[in-house]
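call fold target=proline--tRNA ligase
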Amino acid sequence: MSVQHGLKTLWCGNAASSFVRSIHAQRRALHHDGRNRLSNFWTPTQTRTANTADNAAEDGHDLLVRAGFLRQAHSGIFHLLPLGLRVQDKIEKLIDKHMQRIGASKVSLSSLSSQHLWEKSGRLDGRNKELFQLKDRKDAKYLLAPTHEEEITTIVKNAVHSYKDLPLRLYQISRKYRDEARPRQGLLRGREFIMKDLYTFDVTDAQAMSTYEEVRAAYKAFLDDLNLPYLVANADSGNMGGSHSHEYHFASARGEDTIITCQTCDFSVNEELYFPAHRPAQTEDVETAPTADARQPADDVPYQIWYGQVSESLNTTDDASQETSLDTSGSAPQLKTLVQVFLPNGPYEINLHAMKKLVPSIDTTETVRPEELFGRLEESKTLNDPAEWLVFRDPRVPVAAIINTVEHWTRHGQNRQISQTAHSAIPDIDVSPFTLTNAARDDLCPQCGTEGSLTFSRAVEIGHTFHLGKRYSTPLEAVVQDENNQQVEIAMGCHGIGVSRLLGASASLLADSKGLNWPIAIAPFSVLVVAAGGVSSTEVGALYDEVDASLSSNRIDAIIDDRDRPMGWKLNDADLIGYPFIIVLGKAWKQRRAVELQCRRLGIKEEVPADQLVERILQYSSKL
């Protein structure tokens, strides 16, 4: 080797060694003593941005991002960071505890679901827009599962054949996917999310209902462990199917649901299912009944009129379901149906959920003037396919007033060409008493009949229980042989908890101007230990060890903030992250071995002798 080459090698070696030493000198110190330390734990908290620095209120999602729990990857899609993952893990462990108590076994199903199974169950129709669909290289069709009823039913169908193998309870905690048209509010309405799904299988519907009540009790026990206020309400089963369901909510001003409860009895229902108790309908003679211009009723007229339209003409059938639903599917396209709803005057609004049940194809998104609707009605009318005109009334509006108003409109309205159509429709006006207004505070409770006892709460849904019955076992042919050697379809239930949604909702529920404020059951760490200058790391470690050893059996964990930062910065960072307890070793520790114990949620900041610290934390933790 040449001298020049040797010198070059020596120089490179020295430079590299110096560079490595420089890196080691600048990087954060990592400890390996087994203690939880923030110097080892990545918490990328942020200061308030220019957009929020003008004292604008931050919501729970803003705080989750700023406190280093998550980052947004794409619209409706988020990455969990170490703090967020610890909260999620604690939620999942709490779910595991309550699922195991009711004898459920944990499974893990693939995120890919067969489109063929969804076609077979009948759930694919009408849902294509919200599903992520794909094909493999052989053109086999799959979708990213938003839920797993079809897959789990198929697994059980192929493995369970006798009533002796039931009841069976299987659950999973996994990623789900839904192509939301408008993702919003962070984790509350995303396109990828974590959910717990419990699927139950019984021989009879009666046994399935007994299982359903067991699951409801487990859900309540789980929510009680969180120590957060929650609501349970009767709910609509929607696309999931089945005949019986309940929702579980956190009250929140930012919630998308409205829960109606009675202060006198145990009535509680989602507004989507609410139908007020009927008050006696008014009766008047046709000759004396008031009339109104259909565009805007006068103040002295005791009703108002809401207009809607259907983009397809109605195709009514003789099916018994026609009594509660006027289905427009299968109708000729492009034809218009005018829907006219007479409501009592006053502070009442149309109940769009109720209208959707009566006329599933009604367009509740477009707002147009009644003259335009009447014009469209006439334009779409042909000799072979006449347009429809549906009239509904609230029981508090007299039938006579409807007749008079319709006649008044057809005689004096701006579009006189529709007169004949309108008059021919009058004998067919539907005068059945549908209660079609949103809930009002002076409504009678539908259950106990008490007036003025209803309360209204905006809420975020975090769980849902469904009694499915034979909804999936019938189309997927999941049967067992009963004790009489007869083939019977399995009675099913499915029960979900939105894990990532619960994380986001919990963050929003308790957040304040200083930051997040976690319930102790799911806090990333229950206790933060922080010391002022002059307190040795040995003393801090000894106190941490005592707290950790004494409280770990109570699922209370601790972490030390040993970062090279000012004390004020550390305390502000702790408030932002939302530790339930902060232990400060300062002057009192140096003088008399006492610490300052802080609990922002309980408004506590007090000096506690070191030998009483564990007892005091246990005392306060029962309230968190």
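return ok
The CA atoms of residues 371 and 414 lie 7 Å apart. The mean pLDDT is 81.
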